[in-house]
Design a protein that fits this description.
By secondary structure, the protein is mostly beta strands. It has 2 domains: 24-45 and 93-189, Immunoglobulin-like (Sandwich), CATH 2.60.40; 48-89, no CATH class. Helices cover 11% and strands 31% of the residues. It has 1 helix and 12 strands, in the order αββββββββββββ. It has one helix at 2-23; strands at residues 34-39, 51-52, 67-69, 72-74, 86-87, 105-114, 118-123, 133-139, 144-148, 156-158, 174-180, 183-189. The strands form 4 sheets. It has a 5-stranded antiparallel sheet, with no helix packed on it. A 3-stranded antiparallel sheet has the order 1-6-9, with no helix packed on it. The longest helix has 22 residues, at 2-23.
């Protein structure tokens, strides 16, 4: 009886292990999901309100205190509205370069923040010939959730010295392949001609 129970237990354990290996992702990590977007032009973003108005609350300061605001001194028990706009200074965003080759820029959004260890863009030949690698980086990036084709993420370097991202061609299918440790992700995309300025 004990021998049959051990054999049956071993078979059940083997079937359970086989199920976990073949039909679940408990051992294999989920793939990185990537969305690509073709941007005919990149405009530097402007966030926040460019003009704000300051309003002093109706709560009066203790007697004898002076409330100072935007170079206006007000006595106690007064509510002042100033119509002098205050410009909000935005940080310098830097120049956004046009994609090489005169095509629209392509951005890639990842489904989370990842520390990438490998990045490669290659073409997808229709005739089955080996793909040509256009952009290949290795290293360890800072945590990131998006990429711009041709702009190397900080911490990653080209696999060959002085190698830059090669120009893309409009309408040609390409594939992005990224790795972040044990996790991998791919995305197929095409680009379009750049918009006239």
């Amino acid at each position: 009886m004990n021998k049959r129970a051990l054999i049956l237990g071993g078979v059940l354990f083997g079937l359970g292990l086989l199920y976990v290996l073949l039909f679940t992702e408990w051992i294999r990590p989920e793939p990185i999901q990537i969305a690509s977007q073709v941007r005919a032009s990149l405009i530097q973003p402007r966030f926040g309100r460019p003009v704000t108005q300051r309003i002093i609350s109706s709560l009066a300061p203790p007697k004898g205190d002076v409330l100072k605001m935007t170079n206006i001194t007000v006595g106690t028990n007064l509510v002042v509205r100033t119509n002098q706009p205050q410009r909000v200074q935005l940080s310098d965003w830097g120049q956004i370069d046009q994609a090489p080759g005169g095509v629209a820029n392509v951005t890639f959004s990842l489904d989370g923040n990842y520390i990438l260890t490998s990045l490669r863009v290659q073409d997808v030949p229709a005739d089955g010939s080996p793909p040509k690698i256009l952009w290949q980086l290795a290293g360890k990036s800072l945590p990131l959730s998006f990429l711009l084709y041709g702009r190397d993420p900080q911490g990653m370097k080209p696999t060959t010295p002085d190698a830059k991202a090669e120009p893309l061609s409009a309408g040609v299918p390409y594939r992005l392949i990224v790795e972040a440790g044990r996790r991998h992700g791919t995305n197929d995309f095409k680009t379009t001609p750049a918009a006239a300025r």
